[in-house]
Automatic annotation (TrEMBL):
Residues 345-376 are annotated as: Disordered. Residues 349-372 have a biased composition (Acidic residues). This is T9SS type A sorting domain-containing protein. It comes from Caldithrix abyssi. It comes from the Bacteria.
Length: 710
């Protein structure tokens, strides 16, 4: 056991989950994102970004809460409680105006890495060695340096994956998903008591084990599963406890630069146990400039998979405002006793028509909205709506544990969001048994003058259900994958590939067995990729303008040449292997990988003209005019204009229409491409207008102009 510090939050660490289309920065003390509602400078990105790389983020604060009424045995509580009030420990940190007693869980030091919260995909984020069992001790207060051991608690071993060494969620410690996180915490008085001589705070003596699981694959790419196990580490029971999820999504949150406050709608689907939200008017400022319409604003939610307590189901649902009516039965419950009564237990809520703990009457006329045509949702003005789903009451005996499992789910539409929620439910009910497409191929890309050559492995074809390949291309950093798209019957968006290669086996046309997959095109029995073999570090019969990195002599490879490219633009490609489906599930294909820098099925490549050797006649600006919303926009934080066809060495000076020098770029690059980020020498974004450039090099000079439209 390590020694604790006076400020246990010195052990708080952050990291990012980014294996699929959802990316979020989380900490090891129970907060799943940080949009920091009151100090935007403290926000951490990505904060539930969906799709990953789009800049559209939806997370303000998602955390968990655990509470119990007053009258607990003195051994199970800490702090001071002279007024005999209820207890409420939350992991959220939204600022003092929202919840007045925050961050009531701190990490056990022995589980902490010096630099980052632990994730399975990065062993450098793990502690020096994993403890063999859960801690059987707790700290009395902020000044406790050693902790109190409880010898009466059973030893709970921490099992690890026999291959990776990761402490997975499987019955024998197996890692069940493609990316996971793990942390162990203890209850304490929270950050509000640090530095306070006579802190008036109270808490329950518990232990909290936190996990997450995220998968690749088209069925699982829109959600992350979270597991929280609450444990009583004392010798007395914690009675009539309840546990829930604190949900604060924004569409879009105001911490994103250029985004203002706007109202959001908050819904609850009791059949799915899904609390979800969307923008109120279908109009928002865009992180890349301009505006977003209703088809461009995502839906976000939390679906409960397993709740603590005897029923295992959601027993309470509350929708409230971040600060309006905060100290009343309709508000967000700033103090622990308020939050416990009015939010977690949802007692006496004017929007609960029948007192069953579930808000259902959002026009407050005493009749459930679904019975009289009411709105069916709560409107949180100023993007300040909150949702809380809670368990029923339960008693936690000494050493006993109970489990909360939920998924943060996302979709481009309400229909896709609910499909995503159902897929998370199905995965939970199948005991985390996933259904996979054939293994994704590994792709390498090689650029030339107005040409890109893709080379990929053939081991996908060893899958017994393998049917073919689809090749997709993107000009917006993987946000879209083609010029033609369509929606399936469940609201999912798909793209028409730029090329498709289908085994010649009579399996062709649209899939017919399961009606819900009738949109999937299996191909037309045409197999035309160029098949070749690796010789040394190149491909026999092809000029690939580079050296292969991940293939060996004699390997069989497929080759595709794209000749419809513009020099200077960054293209993303991915190659998806797909199968033919069966009577249980329809055809599946690989998704694009989230990190093209790693060896996988997704690559980034920029075609370029040969660098100038004799003159600057072929130098040009791409794009011209530059329009921020066009397809070549690289990402929401990145505005780039490129000078192509340059010699190896050149100096570029950019002037505005008044003749003032805006920026000087010193170019030294074999590709013949120089990039300008549209910022002046003071790092300020350039204004729209006409700009002039003057290029000096050893082979000559050139002038020209271009237009910027922001």
């Amino acid at each position: 056991m390590l020694m604790a510090q006076n400020n246990p939050m010195e052990y708080k660490r952050w990291n990012t989950l980014n294996i699929n289309r959802v990316a979020t920065t989380f900490d090891n003390v129970g907060m799943l994102c940080n949009g920091n509602n009151q100090n935007y400078n403290l926000a951490r990105e990505p904060s539930f970004e969906f799709p990953q790389g789009s800049g559209k983020q939806y997370g303000t604060c998602i955390g968990v809460v655990f509470g119990a009424p007053a009258g607990q045995h003195p051994d199970v509580v800490g702090g001071t409680n002279p007024e005999n009030l209820a207890y409420l420990d939350g992991t959220m940190d939204e600022g003092p105006a929202d919840f007045w007693n925050e961050e009531h869980f701190a990490p056990y030091p022995e589980f902490v890495n010096p630099n980052a919260a632990s994730i399975s995909t990065d062993p450098e984020s793990w502690p020096a060695s994993w403890p063999e069992a859960l801690p059987n001790y707790y700290f009395m207060d902020v000044n406790d340096q050693t902790g109190v051991q409880n010898p009466n608690l059973p030893v709970v071993p921490i099992l690890r994956d026999s291959v990776t060494g990761w402490p997975g969620f499987g019955p024998n410690g197996e890692q069940l998903s493609d990316q996971e996180m793990f942390s162990v915490m203890y209850g304490w008085g929270g950050t509000d008591q640090i530095g306070v001589g006579n802190a008036q705070t109270r808490w329950l003596r518990t232990q909290l084990i936190m996990r997450s699981m995220a998968w690749k694959g088209s069925l699982y790419e829109n959600f992350i599963v979270w597991i929280f196990v609450i444990r009583n580490v004392t010798n007395q029971p914690i009675t009539d406890a309840a546990m829930g999820v604190h949900i604060d999504f924004g569409h879009l949150p105001a911490f994103i630069q250029g985004i203002g406050y706007d109202a959001d709608r908050h819904y609850y689907d009791p059949k799915l146990q899904l609390a979800y939200s969307w923008d109120d008017d279908g109009f928002e400022e865009s992180p890349v400039g301009g505006t977003l319409g209703p088809d461009e604003i995502g839906w976000a939610g939390v679906v409960a998979l397993e709740m603590p307590g005897p029923t295992g189901k959601v027993q309470t649902y509350d929708a409230a405002h971040f600060w309006q009516g905060q100290t009343s039965r309709s508000g967000s419950g700033g103090a622990p006793e308020m939050y416990y009564k009015w939010n977690l237990r949802n007692q006496d809520d004017p929007q609960d028509s029948d007192g069953d703990g579930v808000d259902d009457d959002f026009n407050e006329n005493g009749i459930p909205d679904d019975q009289e045509g009411g709105p069916g949702y709560y409107v949180g003005s100023g993007a300040d709506g909150l949702q809380i789903i809670g368990s029923g009451q339960f008693t936690l005996q000494p050493g006993q544990m109970d489990t909360l499992i939920f998924a943060t789910v996302f979709g481009a539409s309400e229909k896709e969001l609910k499909t995503t929620a159902q897929r998370a439910i199905n995965l939970y009910q199948s005991n985390w048994e996933i259904v996979e497409a054939p293994p994704a191929p590994v792709v390498e890309a090689f650029a030339d003058d107005r040409k890109v050559t893709l080379v990929w492995s053939t081991y996908s074809e060893e899958d017994v259900q393998f049917e073919g390949y689809k090749i997709y291309r993107s000009l917006d950093q993987g946000q879209t994958w083609g010029t033609e798209s369509f929606a399936d019957f469940e609201g999912g968006i798909h793209y028409v590939p730029m090329a498709q290669y289908d085994l010649v086996n009579g399996v062709k046309g649209f899939y017919k067995t399961l009606p819900e997959y009738a949109w999937f095109y299996l191909g037309d029995d045409e197999w035309v990729p160029n098949r070749s073999i690796v010789q040394a570090d190149t491909v026999k019969g092809f000029h690939i303008n580079g050296k292969l990195q991940g293939f060996e002599e004699g390997d069989s490879v497929n080759v595709y040449v794209d000749r419809d490219v513009v020099n200077g633009l960054a293209y993303w490609y991915y190659v998806a292997a797909y199968d033919s489906g069966n009577a249980i599930i329809g055809p599946l294909e690989n998704s694009s990988a989230s990190n093209p820098a790693e060896p996988n099925n997704t690559v980034i490549v920029t075609a370029y003209a040969p660098k100038a050797k004799e003159n600057l006649d072929n130098v040009r600006v791409v794009p011209n005019p530059y329009i921020v919303s066009e397809i070549w926009e690289a990402g929401y934080k990145e505005h780039v204009i490129q000078f192509v066809g340059l010699p190896y060495e050149a100096t570029i000076r950019i002037f505005n229409s008044s003749g003032e020098l805006v920026r000087t770029i010193e170019h030294r690059d074999q590709t013949g491409i120089a990039r300008w980020d549209l910022k002046n020498k003071f790092s300020q974004l350039a204004a729209p207008g006409v700009y002039f450039y003057y290029i000096e090099s050893g082979i000559g000079e050139k002038t020209g102009k271009f237009i910027v439209i922001l």
